[in-house]
Every structure is written in structure tokens, then in C-alpha cells.
Amino acid sequence: MQRIGILTSGGDSPGMNAAIRAVVRKAIYHGLEVIGIKRGFNGFIEGDMEPMRLGSVADIIHRGGTILHTARSEQFKTPAGRAKAWENVERFGLEGLVVIGGDGSFTGAGIFHQEYGLPVAAIPGTIDNDISGTDYSIGFDTAVNTAVDAINKIRDTATSHERTFIVEVMGRDTGFIAVAAGLAGGAESILIPEYPYSIEEVCHKLCKGYRRGKLHSIIVVAEGAGSGLEIGRQIKEHTGFDTKVTILGHLQRGGTPTAFDRILASQLGARAVELLMQGATCKMVGMTAGKIVETDLDRVLGQKKTVDLDVYRLASILAI
Ligand code: F6P
């Protein structure tokens, strides 16, 4: 193997740059050439690709975002789009591809591998942490810390004004960020898509807390569990409490990656290169129980990862 491509795809996540750095440096260390593909699969289709050198990844380990830029490519979902990408594989002489992204990106990479046989090493990079085959995806830890930092600040003003706050965090389909940030931030209630809830129940818990002297409350809502604004409106209507809503939104996707995410990204990036060099065909690298592991990509895509409901219940017990 002489030359590999690398791209980032889907929603960006803090630590993607550290992963790019690891892939490029590890590959060059072993004498491989690396072609950086811009704007995810869109750049793959358009041939927006250029060689990367040691200096291309200097001074990026601490930066959020992705120097390769990213996109959610509609064109790559079509056979015609993938055929154009294959032309660029041949034009640039790629013998393997590293894809950093989430499940949507991995689905595209998997189909491309099936159709054209290009070896793929996938690296999980999404703040949502909803990829099976790994305990953590790159960016999750940073996003949780960002959310906890916000909750801490909101708690200050919630206390002063004796208010109820709804904090909406990201997680279109899963409640990983909500559960982790809610537990670490001491939230009174956490609402996630995986666990049914009723507003009456949430209000009942709030009122119970206020009856025994609580003066403020924080409810963390994963966006997939409902709109924070709507939940806030309903709680105010049911309880009459002074209720405010903060939507953290894309704030959670940026910022300097935590040390954990940088270390994870460095390890996964290096392992992805090793896998391609060893002739792996279509695998994802991940970390389970502290060890770097690899899993067939179709297995990763065939399993849905959901939050640990024991941790979710623990957060509820501790917020009694
Ligand atoms: O996939 C990660 C994610 O951050 C989701 O939690 C969120 O719903 C979505 O991306 C937002 O995507 P976009 O930036 O395209 O609006």
C-alpha cells in the first residue's frame, strides 16, 4: 500500500483534527502518502483533493472543527455520485480510505466498499456517541464538558432567581449527551428519546422538590426527546413556576477538544492506518473497556447503540 485518502464527513466534532493529524503522521512515518479530501464525500466526488505533508497537520491538535471541512453529501447517496468518486480514486491512485464521521458517513463508505472494493478504515467522530463498537466517539467528551460548563453557569442564575431551567442539548436520536451532562451537572430530571416520560410526571417531581425546600431546578432535555421550548411552556403552564429555556445547539460541536478526545483521536487515527496497512477491508476502530479494538463496519451499522439505562436511573435516584 502506497497511498491512502482521508476525509471527515457529517456533523463535525472536536478532536477530528487530532485524528487527521494522527492518520497523516502515522502514515508518513510508515512511508505512505496521504491525500486529504475536502468537504467530505462532496470533495471526493468533485476531486477536491490534495497531498498532505507533516506540516499540513501542524498546530491543529488543539483546534475544534476539521481542517478538511465536512458535509452531509446527498450526491454520494446516488450510484452516479459514487461512480464519480471512484474515478477520483483511480486518478489519485488511492489504495485505501480513512473516513472520520458518524453512522451516515459509515453507511456511505460501506456501500462504496461493496461496490468498488476500496479498503475502508472508519473512525467514529460524532458528539452524539451513538456508534456501536466503541464506548466513546471522538468529540463526545468535549461536548459533555461544554454542556456541563453551561449547566454550572445556568445553575448560578437559576439559584439567584429561584427559577426552573430547561437546558436542551444535542442528540437527535439518542440521549448520550443528556444523560452524561445531566448526571455530571446534577440535573433534577433528564429527558431522552430512549425513555418515555410524561410532563405530568416531570412536574410532579418538580413540585415535590419545591415542597421540601428546593428553590431552583434544572431539567436537561435531549433534542430528540422533544423541543426544550415546548417542554418549558408546558411545565410553566402546569406548575406556574418561573421557567426559562436555554438551547445549547451548535455550541456543543465546537471548542478545543479535551485531553481525552485528543488521546482517543490519536490512538484511533494511528490504528486506522495500521489496519489499512495490514490489509483490512472494511472495519471501524474503536475503544471498548479501555482497549483499542476493531469491528467489521457492517456489524457496527447493524447494531443500535443506546444509552445505559442504569446510569440514567442512577441520575434520577441522585436527583431525588
Ligand atoms: O449528528 C450530530 C448532531 O450534532 C446531532 O446531535 C444534531 O441533531 C445534528 O448533528 C445537527 O446537525 P446539523 O449541524 O447538520 O444541523
Automatic annotation (TrEMBL):
It is found in: Cytoplasm. The active site is at residue 128. Its main location: cytoplasm. It comes from Desulfofundulus thermosubterraneus DSM 16057. It comes from the Bacteria. ADP binds at residues 21-25, 155, 186-188, 212, 214-216. SUPFAM superfamilies: Phosphofructokinase. Allosterically activated by ADP and other diphosphonucleosides, and allosterically inhibited by phosphoenolpyruvate. One of its GO terms (biological process) is canonical glycolysis. Residues 3-276 form the Phosphofructokinase domain. Keywords: Allosteric enzyme, ATP-binding, Cytoplasm, Glycolysis, Kinase, Magnesium, Metal-binding, Nucleotide-binding, Transferase. Belongs to the phosphofructokinase type A (PFKA) family. ATP-dependent PFK group I subfamily. Prokaryotic clade 'B1' sub-subfamily. It catalyses: beta-D-fructose 6-phosphate + ATP = beta-D-fructose 1,6-bisphosphate + ADP + H(+). Its EC number is 2.7.1.11. Substrate binds at residues 126-128, 163, 170-172, 223, 244, 250-253. ATP binds at residues 11, 72-73, 102-105. Its cofactor is Mg(2+). This is ATP-dependent 6-phosphofructokinase. One of its GO terms (molecular function) is 6-phosphofructokinase activity.
